[in-house]
UniProtKB/TrEMBL annotation:
<dbReference type="InterPro" id="IPR023415">
    <property type="entry name" value="LDLR_class-A_CS"/>
</dbReference>
<keyword id="KW-0677">Repeat</keyword>
<keyword id="KW-0325">Glycoprotein</keyword>
<keyword id="KW-1133">Transmembrane helix</keyword>
<feature type="disulfide bond">
    <location>
        <begin position="896"/>
        <end position="914"/>
    </location>
</feature>
<dbReference type="InterPro" id="IPR036055">
    <property type="entry name" value="LDL_receptor-like_sf"/>
</dbReference>
<keyword id="KW-0472">Membrane</keyword>
<feature type="domain" description="MAM">
    <location>
        <begin position="57"/>
        <end position="221"/>
    </location>
</feature>
<feature type="disulfide bond">
    <location>
        <begin position="249"/>
        <end position="264"/>
    </location>
</feature>
<dbReference type="GO" id="GO:0016020">
    <property type="term" value="C:membrane"/>
</dbReference>
<feature type="disulfide bond">
    <location>
        <begin position="486"/>
        <end position="501"/>
    </location>
</feature>
<feature type="domain" description="MAM">
    <location>
        <begin position="504"/>
        <end position="670"/>
    </location>
</feature>
<dbReference type="InterPro" id="IPR013320">
    <property type="entry name" value="ConA-like_dom_sf"/>
</dbReference>
<dbReference type="Pfam" id="PF00057">
    <property type="entry name" value="Ldl_recept_a"/>
</dbReference>
<feature type="disulfide bond">
    <location>
        <begin position="1349"/>
        <end position="1361"/>
    </location>
</feature>
<dbReference type="InterPro" id="IPR051560">
    <property type="entry name" value="MAM_domain-containing"/>
</dbReference>
<keyword id="KW-0812">Transmembrane</keyword>
Length: 1492
């Protein structure tokens, strides 16, 4: 063979360039076998030589190192070939490592052995030399890198004669105890190269690094052939290989001799080695930034290629887009090709010729976790993108990919390559080796696009005669009210009143929005995140998991939906899809829609309710909800003039769109009154609407006027609770793991819980919820127990609303609990949908029972379970209360601490009836908080509570209490909490006080921190009194005059996030115990004044029960039985119905009777009259079956009234533990009964008093219904039925307001007139003492005499002493407010405050003293003075000089200089920091003025 040629074993000569090129030319492949030898030594031909061909391209190291060797052997840190059984078992503390090939400790691999203490050891494993590789060449190997200090590894290409290395792979640190597969793209390499694997240790190497099973695929060049297919392939000139026609002139030497790249036009090729060639950057504003030309890897790790495609090393060039700053998400870079001739002529050439079709080829790399998109467009005009030909999205791996596309255009055209930035810096995109084949350049310019002119028709007004303020229908002479426009009901005959409104149902088919309008904030001109209609078939590759392929309506890719494309915009941006204003809806109006939220970083979908300027969230969902459609409901109810808004918020990246479909408004068209009377199954609303009885008292305004939810109408619905303030009659169970909580707004954990409650449907509404996050554990249970219901309940139903949404939802169970059993009624597990749902359960039991709600924590924190609006039907009866009393006290009474007794009426009445305070101790009494809270209770509905504590100098609470004035004293305060938000509220409340006197006052001391000012409000029932705040500890006095059945509530409000900053101490009720009064001084104008002078409520008069101590309320009461239905039953047996104006019900089971005793002997032994000689009304149960009913009803109706009419009667229910029930109904003209009162059980051997408020929206009759119990001893009796006068007139009986004469003074809070000469005479004459309030002093312009108080104090007219700081501060601190009188002449210094003066002076002398300052030196002091006069406002600033010491004593004289001054104001200000920038603190401060 010629010199330098390779000699095959059987003769034959091979060129040196063909040795080690992955292609065997020798018959046994020995030309490739020599690649295993480091120095190309020859060896004899044999069968083993033939097999060794594959050992160079595939090596498992079982029979040798395959030509791989350590570069610097013997330096103590080397790659060696070995197996686990040859490695010491304690090597690096790692267990024996099996090889990858055989997965056994006998198998071989290359690994690092260290036996040197060198600080910078370096091990480099070098592979065989290869002459070249084909364009599809890849290398695959398995790598093991595990250990706490195993270090990094790099793999790189080495080229002969080239110093620079090209890194093709790297790994960092511990990759876990496993073999990891690695594939590297080598591509076309045209010069000799070898692979090197370098391992570097920084002095500490602890671990195992190994290398096994290396292989090279598709690396050999195409073999020579005799003949190639004529039309599809090119026959290489020298190598005689066949190459596809599309591989010609593509800047890649596929032949191996370069003949496929000869004769090509360089004008239509570009490898970017010498610039952009004929390609240009977009400069006409069609993109945001430019492509960048670069060598080697891009600047950002983990993104972009590591080498170019042309040369396959770091010397080659390519273009890429840089996704780091200043680029933003969705910014684009556009590259423009030269302009080409049309590819065919219409009518002459076929658009797709079989041969010589214009083709565009390029290579691209899209590597990085935030890669977005690369697109190719074809345009035929000078502007715009044109037609999208191809697009690729997302990470495509660290590889160069080849793309070929055929181009078709009947006009001159240009190719655009657009790269789009992802939403983070790991999003670089690269292109290289752009080439065209069979395309001809066009020598000219593209035309500009032609835009046809737009003509807008002039608007035409419809002729009409409609009054102003009405809507003009499309049909001539038709008008409707504006309130009827957009109400889901066509009131115009042509439906034009609903034309420009949102449609009742919308599936978005055809891209129709159905009246929904897109509104997006203008965050950016480019790439706005916004709602748009689209189809699933338009989704591109990579979007399959980000938005649905099929819509919900048709379940087809051709179906439409509305979606917010997260490919646009930035994190947190939002877009609104909103309705026009909806004028009105029906009570049951519900928004229903389907949503799809899939993707790793999908954002948030919210439904907003917008009324005028108020907007709040009523539904929300956040995060990935799975790749499927989900249903949602939002209850809207009866509303007016509002909009519904779908708000989509973008997540942190483009991976996840927000999609909705099939949006509908169910039952939203307002129902008009039918004009027909309501049926017996309907409730007649006050506005004449009729609603089903089942809709009564369910916390939804079905009537439209709330008459169906009036508390008086709903009195028969026991156990109702909407959790707005507390748990109502529900109680936490003590035998569970944690408690249910009351919450307003959304729950703390994202992705679970509702956005608002069900009752109010706004952020202020409350509901009951189970918090499933830490510290709760999976399976923990919380239980809440309802009131005790009677076994006599019939047709008893419980209705409630629940919300169970989240991927970690546990279980909600409902039980009926008796003393002996627990019966499961309902079990719900898992996600039930992100909306409030109603559930109704039938309840019955053979024993008294309670309903128990049990919530169990699920598998994750996204598992909050919520309850709201629990109601029991009128058929659910409360079990009679078992009174546990001391044996020495009468029934119903309680024992005092000293052994005496008190009744419920004596509790919380401001009178110590027990003489030891027992009857008042839990009422929320006067309190210093030294011994607890004195009965003041926190609300369960608050986010935080008033805390009981002591003073602290390190906190925003007061440093000391007010009672003891030291840090051991107690007070209640708003505590700062880590999760507190501005606006959070905390309440403490008293019990219900019976009545207050005409002079009752509440005084209290409050504190507001200057560090974190909170707000305190005092709420009395529903009347709010806002106490003016000051940043000192001050006293407030609030009148509580003539109140009845009231609560006192202190509300604390955070003024800043996290903070508290407010405290209360020394609450004191002053003169609040009711006492004898004169007429006109009772709490209510309608009150009855006993002869003793005490007041009682009017409905207690003549009720056959003495409420006045002198029994004067029961005198002269014969008139009471003149009312319809009022009766004492003292008449002949056959005349009671006529005389009493009562009638038996013909449809009941049996009749009532009258008599002076019952047949069974278990009823009353006498009637209720004092002498016991009269009759009573009763049922005889012995002859009836259990459950039989007897009804008696008033003959004449009472006029409609709500909350005014009182029914009083006495009943007797005694004799058996199986006693039946007694109920009172009001029955309207349509026959619908409304339960007003019910009782059951054994009430003892006595007559029991009942006082029932009767209500009905229509004229009504009163029905007494008795139901037979479980045996013959269940007789029920009635006596002395009476009604108040309000029942007869149907309205309140209020005396006319008192009118005083001109020479008299009208008392403010009592119906009382006194002579004007008694006003402000120093002696209170009004019962409420209002004649001595806000009085001028004896000499106008002066203040009360001073001298009895210490210095620096102000003396009130009642001799009370106040700090002088409170003088003239705008707050009345003296009882009569005299501390605020004559303030325009009185001068008092206020710290950093103001001074006022009315008298004219020419000079003022200011004396200033400050002591104990920190860093006071070199502080600039100045006086700022504002003056007001006829000439306007003038401001002067006077420097007081620079301080030199730690204290200041200055005197300064100021000339006023304005003869027309009427008032001046001076502000003395101190800078917060001195000239050194240090914080300035002052401990003592004095300021005085003297006028000249």
């Amino acid at each position: 063979c010629p010199p330098s040629w390779f000699t095959c074993a059987r003769g034959g000569c091979i060129e040196e360039s063909k040795v080690c090129d992955f292609s065997p030319y020798c018959s046994h492949g020995e030309d490739e076998d020599r690649c295993r030898k480091n120095h190309f030594t020859k060896r004899a031909a044999s069968l083993q030589c033939f097999l060794s061909l594959f050992l160079a391209s595939e090596c498992d190291f079982e029979d040798g190192s395959c030509g791989w060797y350590e570069l610097t052997p013997g330096d103590g840190f080397d790659w060696i070939r070995g197996s686990s059984d040859k490695v010491p078992p304690d090597y690096y503390g790692h267990p024996p490592l099996p090889d990858h090939t055989t997965n056994s400790t006998k198998g071989h691999y290359m690994f690092i052995l260290r036996n040197s203490s060198s600080l910078h050891p370096n091990a480099v494993l070098i592979g065989p030399w290869f002459q070249q590789s084909a364009s599809g060449c890849t290398m695959t190997f398995w790598h093991y890198n595990s250990g706490v200090s195993v270090g990094a590894a790099d793999m790189y290409l080495r080229f002969k004669g080239v110093q620079n290395k090209t890194v093709i792979w790297t790994t960092l640190y511990d990759q876990g105890r496993r073999w990891n597969r690695v594939t590297i793209q080598l591509g076309r390499i045209t010069q000799p190269f070898q692979i090197a694997l370098a391992k570097i240790s920084l002095g500490v190497f602890d671990g195992v690094s190994a290398f096994d099973d290396v292989s090279f695929k598709n690396c050999s060049m195409p073999p020579p052939v005799a003949v190639c297919p004529e039309h599809t392939h090119f026959h290489c000139v020298h190598t005689r290989a066949c190459v596809e026609h599309l591989r010609l002139c593509d800047l890649v030497d596929d032949c191996g001799d370069g003949s496929d790249e000869e004769g090509c036009s360089p004008e239509i090729q570009c490898d970017f080695e010498d610039g952009l060639c004929n390609w240009k950057q977009e400069t006409s504003g069609g993109d945001v930034f430019n492509w960048t030309r670069i060598q080697g890897p891009t600047p950002t790790r983990n993104t972009g290629p590591w080498k170019d495609h042309t040369l396959g090393n770091t010397s080659g060039h390519y273009l890429y887009i840089e996704s780091s700053l200043p680029q933003e998400f969705k910014d684009t870079a556009v590259l423009l090709s030269p302009i080409f001739e049309p590819t065919y002529q219409p009518g002459k050439d076929p658009p797709f010729p079989p041969h010589h079709r214009c083709a565009f080829r390029f290579h691209y790399c899209m590597f990085g976790s935030h890669v977005f998109s690369l697109a190719v467009y074809l345009r035929t005009t000078t502007t715009g993108r044109g037609v999208l030909l191809w697009a690729k999205y997302g990470n495509q791996g660290n590889l160069w990919h080849r793309k070929t596309m055929y181009l078709h255009s009947a006009h001159p055209f240009q190719i655009l390559i657009e790269g789009t930035v992802g939403d983070d810096f790991e999003g670089d995109i690269a292109i290289d080796d752009l080439s065209f084949l069979d395309c001809q350049l066009f020598h000219g310019e593209l035309p500009s696009p032609i835009t046809p002119p737009l003509t807008t028709p002039a608007p035409t007004a419809i002729p009409n005669n409609c009054p102003e303020g009405q809507f003009v229908c499309g049909t001539h002479s038709e008008c409707v009210l504006l309130s009827q426009v957009c109400d889901f009901k066509q009131d115009c005959s042509d439906g034009s009143d609903e034309t420009n409104c949102v449609k009742e149902r919308c599936n978005f088919e055809g891209g129709v929005s159905c009246g929904w309008t897109v509104v997006s904030p203008s965050f950016s001109v480019n790439h706005v995140f916004r709602w748009a209609a689209d189809q699933g078939e338009s989704s591109h590759n990579g979007e399959q998991n980000h938005r649905p392929t099929n819509d919900h309506t048709l379940n087809s890719p051709k179906g439409w939906y509305m979606y917010a494309d997260s490919s646009n915009g930035g994190y947190g941006q939002f877009s609104d899809l909103q309705t026009p204003v909806i004028s009105s809806t029906a009570p049951q109006c519900t928004l229903i829609f389907w949503y799809h939220m899939s993707g790793f970083t999908v954002g948030t979908l919210q439904v907003l309710f917008r009324h005028k300027n108020l907007t709040h969230v009523v539904w929300s969902q956040t995060g990935n909800q799975g790749n499927g459609w989900k249903r949602a409901e939002v209850f809207l109810g009866l509303s007016n003039d509002f909009q519904v808004v779908f708000r989509a918020k973008r997540g942190i990246s483009y991976m996840g769109d927000v999609v909705i479909d099939d949006v509908s408004f169910r039952d939203c068209s307002p129902v008009l009154p039918s004009g027909q009377p309501c049926t017996s199954e309907e409730f007649a609303c006050a506005n004449s609407h009729c609603i089903p009885q089942d809709n009564l008292c369910d916390f939804i305004n079905h009537c439209g006027d709330n008459s169906d939810e009036d508390p008086f109408i709903c009195k028969g619905f026991s156990g109702r609770c909407n959790f707005e303030f507390d748990l109502c009659s529900w109680r936490q169970c003590r035998q569970d793991d944690f408690d249910w909580l009351i919450k307003a707004g959304s729950t703390p954990t994202l992705g679970t819980g509702p956005s608002s409650d069900h009752t109010l449907r706004d952020p202020t509404g409350h509901y009951l919820y189970l918090e499933s996050s830490f510290p709760q554990a999976v399976g923990d249970a919380a239980r809440v127990i309802g009131p005790l219901l009677s076994r006599r309940s019939s047709q008893c139903k419980m209705r409630f609303y629940y919300h169970m949404s989240g991927d970690g939802i546990g279980t909600l169970s409902v039980f009926a609990k008796t003393e002996e059993s627990l019966h499961l009624l309902l079990n719900l597990t898992g996600d039930q949908g992100n909306y409030w749902q109603m559930k109704e359960l039938q309840l019955s039991s053979s024993a008294d029972f309670q309903v128990v709600f049990e919530g169990k924590v699920g598998r994750s924190e996204k598992g909050d379970i919520c309850l709201d609006d629990i109601t029991f039907s009128p058929g659910c009866l409360l079990s009679p209360t078992v009174l546990v009393t001391d044996r020495f006290c009468p029934p119903g009474a309680s024992v005092c601490g000293k052994g005496s007794c008190y009744t419920p009426e004596q509790m919380c009445d401001f009178t110590d009836d027990c003489s030891d305070g027992t009857d008042e101790e839990d009422c929320g009494t006067s309190c210093s908080f030294e011994n607890g809270r004195c009965g003041w209770k926190s609300s369960l509905a608050d986010n935080f509570d008033w805390a009981l504590g002591t003073g602290s100098l390190q906190s925003i609470r007061p440093p000391y209490d007010h009672t003891l004035m030291d840090d051991n004293g107690h007070f209640v305060y708003l505590e700062a909490t880590p999760v507190g938000l501005k606006g959070d509220k905390a309440h403490i409340r008293s019990s219900v006080w019976k009545e207050s006197s005409a002079v009752c006052k509440l005084s209290f001391w409050y504190y507001l921190s200057h560090k974190a000012t909170g707000t305190i409000r005092l709420l009395i029932k529903v009347e709010r009194v806002l106490v003016e705040t000051r940043r000192k500890k001050l006293i407030a006095v609030v009148p509580l005059r003539n109140l009845r059945n009231f609560e006192v509530i202190f509300e604390g409000i955070r003024s800043r996030d996290v903070s508290g900053g407010a405290a209360l101490d020394d609450l004191e009720y002053i003169d609040c115990a009711p006492s004898a009064v004169e007429p006109g001084r009772c709490p209510a104008a309608t009150d009855f004044v006993c002869e003793s002078g005490h007041c009682i409520e009017s409905h207690l008069v003549c009720d056959n029960k003495a409420d006045c101590a002198d029994e004067s309320d029961e005198k002269d009461c014969d008139y009471i039985f003149g009312s319809p239905g009022a009766c004492g039953f003292n008449m002949e047996d056959d005349r009671w119905e006529q005389v009493c104006q009562l009638s038996q019900d013909p449809d009941d089971d049996f009749d009532w009777r009258i008599g002076h005793k019952t047949e069974t002997g278990v009823g009353p032994q006498s009637d209720h009259s004092p002498d016991g000689g009269g009759n009573f009304l009763y049922i005889h149960s012995a002859t009836q079956r259990e459950g039989d009913v007897a009804k008696v009803t008033t003959t004449n109706p009472f006029p409609a009234s709500i909350g005014l009419c009182h029914l009083r009667f006495w009943f007797f229910m005694y004799g058996s533990p199986k006693m039946g029930t007694l109920k009172v109904y009001t029955v309207g003209a349509n026959g619908t009964p409304l339960l007003m009162w019910a009782t059951t059980g054994n009430h003892g051997n006595q007559w029991t008093y009942a006082n029932v408020v009767l209500s009905n929206t229509k004229d009504f009759r009163v029905t007494f219904q008795a139901e037979v119990g479980g045996d013959m001893w269940t007789d029920i009796a009635l006596d002395d039925i009476s009604y108040t006068a309000e029942c007869v007139v149907g309205g309140p009986l209020t005396p006319q307001p008192l009118t005083c004469d001109a020479d008299q003074f009208q008392c403010t809070h009592s119906f009382q007139c006194i002579p004007k000469t008694w006003w402000c005479d120093g002696s209170p004459d009004c019962a409420d003492q209002s004649d001595e309030e806000r009085c001028p002093t004896a000499l106008p312009g002066t203040v009360p005499p001073q001298g009895d108080c210490p210095d620096e104090n102000f003396q009130c007219s009642d001799l009370r002493c106040l700090p002088a700081l409170l003088r003239c501060d705008g707050v009345y601190d003296c009882p009569n407010g005299e501390d605020e009188h004559s303030c325009r002449e009185f001068m008092v210094p206020l710290l950093f405050g103001n001074i006022y003066c009315v008298s004219l002076r020419h000079f003022v002398i200011i004396n200033v003293y400050m002591g104990g300052g920190i860093n006071m030196k070199k502080s600039l002091m100045y006086l700022r003075m504002n003056t007001w006069g006829k000439k306007g406002t003038h401001q002067q600033t006077h420097s007081l000089g620079e301080t030199k010491n730690e204290s200041i004593n200055l005197q300064h004289k100021v000339e006023l200089g304005d003869s027309d001054l009427q008032m001046y104001k001076e502000e003395f200000k101190i800078p917060l920091r001195n000239q050194q920038g240090e914080k300035l603190e002052v401990e003592k401060y004095e300021l005085s003025f003297r006028f000249l």
